[in-house]
């Protein structure tokens, strides 16, 4: 697919998934890959960026003698999700209008 | 998988310890959760360790600017220490030259001021003597009186410029010391 997701939209998508439930890295990557083609090495920078901006927090849970790091959305993350959602809808409508070619001039 | 992470770990040495550990933890967990056991499986999923490391490091660099990467800093610290050791003789020479220039300027101005003071003092002495001479040998007395007054006049004329010179010299020295101190601390801050 030639259309690529921007990093802001990817942030939004990850926040959207995390607003439903907490994920650990691998599961989150799998979940994102259900919908769009992202490479496996894309998710780490995204999660790190979200964390350093305070949009998600992490906590460790033991799993089979090791730790799994879970990601949880913060209130700041929820707010960010809302604004990305609005931006995306405006952008989507604008592109839709152009693609359909039924502009009223 | 261990070999893959080991290689990745080596390649991530340019990052700070914390950043490196975060990345390694994430990918170790990732490979365990994905049940990727062999080196080939790992490389197929994440790319070769080199590719993955490049991507992780590039991501840090784009955020922090190229100055971030720590290894470069370590190298530059070693270079600076070497440079310092080599530079010490030169530095000492430069410092002593600057110091001697200051000492010279100071001593010249100091001698000028001392001369002015000496002139003033001798003028006062001659003035007093000439008053006494006026009564014993009038013309000689008058000569000395005139001499003393002329000298006092010269001293008064020279006093202001000399004062100005001294004050400015002190100010310049003060500012120069301040400036060099801030330069040194700036350089020190940059590297340590």
Automatic annotation (TrEMBL), chain A:
InterPro entries: Metal_resp_DNA-bind_regulator (IPR052509), Tscrpt_reg_PadR_N (IPR005149), WH-like_DNA-bd_sf (IPR036388), WH_DNA-bd_sf (IPR036390). It comes from the Bacteria. SUPFAM superfamilies: Winged helix' DNA-binding domain. Residues 14-82 form the Transcription regulator PadR N-terminal domain. It holds the Pfam family PadR. PANTHER family: PADR-FAMILY TRANSCRIPTIONAL REGULATOR, TRANSCRIPTIONAL REGULATOR RV3488. This is PadR family transcriptional regulator. The lineage of its organism: Bacteria, Bacillati, Bacillota, Bacilli, Lactobacillales.
